[in-house]
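Lay summary. Proteins are chains of building blocks that fold into shapes, and those shapes determine what they do. In this project we predict the shape from the chain. Here is one chain we studied, written as its sequence of building blocks.
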Amino acid sequence: MTMKQRLDRLDKQNRHSVVYHRPDAWAAVPANNGMSGPAWQWDDEILVGFTKGVFQGTEPGHQVQDELPLESWLARSQDGGQTWTAWPPENYAGQSLMATEPQGHLDLVNPGFVMRVEGNGYHGNRGAHWFCSDDRGASWRGPFHFGELLNHPELVGKEFSSRTAYIINGPQELYLFLTVRLRTDPSGRDLQISLVEKTFLACTTDGGKTFSFVSWVVPWDDPCRAAYPAPVRVSSSTIVTAVRRKSPWNNWIDCYRSEDNGGSWSFLSKVDNTEAEAGPRHNGNPPSLLVLADGRLCCAYGDRSNGNECIALRYSEDQGKNWSVRYVIRDDFQSINGMADLGYVRLFQRPDRKCVAVYFWCSPQHPQTHIEATIFDPKGDQSA
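And here is the predicted shape, written in a compact code that computers can read:
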């Protein structure tokens, strides 16, 4: 059986659903608008964020009118990713609001607690602040600031470009995986800026009132971009995070590992390329990393290789040291303007052990950029 036949067979086992689509809207980049560890999930209830703009389909580039406002939206499924409701929440984003210190007691282990971090330079987001909800995203508080974090000697003078990635350690303690870059072009889209963006770990031990710098996950002097961390805890002292990587000649995903609870980090493995290695035209894709119920790691991501666009994943049985062959769960990409714009996956596992990948996509039925979900069986992928 050829690889193509095997992937076709797997695709027929999957179920795709539309999370949000409007012919006059651009809906995209879930990874910019919500969690990348821990999952915003409560059994079969799943919450994801995305950016919504006004559609354009004739000019090259993103299918969005950049001169018009962009909005941060949420989408919720109550049935494990089969059906979805989307809405624009209040106090979930807002660069025009004044960030303050959180007041009162924040219980980070409250089952309904979720946190969203907003940074500079990607699709309408500006500033350095965070928001939180105690009721599974139904209502939000914020924006809150990071105290003196950005005045740390390792960070001073750098621009905060973080998305949302965190690990909760206790009622008042939380690890935040953040990024900074050089202060030059605020759009953040040229290659030079992309290569100087790096990931670091910060910590709060007082429920978000103060934050401290802990460590660089990828050293600041590393010559390649290292952004969009997707962390998972694999033991009481060991953390693995997947990271989006970029050089002038390639786009790919790496994993880094800490065995001292984030105090120091070392390179662990390369997961996969996220675009054809010879002359990449785009900007790669961020990873989503999940510890499955059977102990394996699953890393999902988009591949923007021209003519071979897909949503792919790989498994690791040894906590990220080695990775399986690539499995493709979606490959019917068809864009109305030809832009290979896709991915930014969010990954979940349901109580029945099936997985749900949420991402942005263009399909033959809906060639405008929109949000979709794929339900797949990781056991089926493992045995294929």
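What the prediction tells us: The two ends are 10 Å apart (CA to CA).
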